[in-house]
Design brief:
This protein is mostly helical. The chain has helices at 2-15, 19-32, 36-45.
């Protein structure tokens, strides 16, 4: 659940021009290693 939220918040932040926040959220998600089905996308967007 935490990884999904971090991914969604990263997308919202990036869409709003808050790049640093987006990167931080993606790093959080990658660090958690979840959800596995979105990890490749998180690595790509980072």
């Amino acid at each position: 659940h935490t990884g999904n939220c971090a991914f969604q918040l990263a997308r919202e932040a990036r869409g709003g021009g808050r790049v640093s926040e987006a990167l931080s959220r993606l790093e959080q998600m990658i660090g958690l290693g979840e959800p596995e089905n979105l990890l490749d996308q998180a690595w790509f967007e980072r």
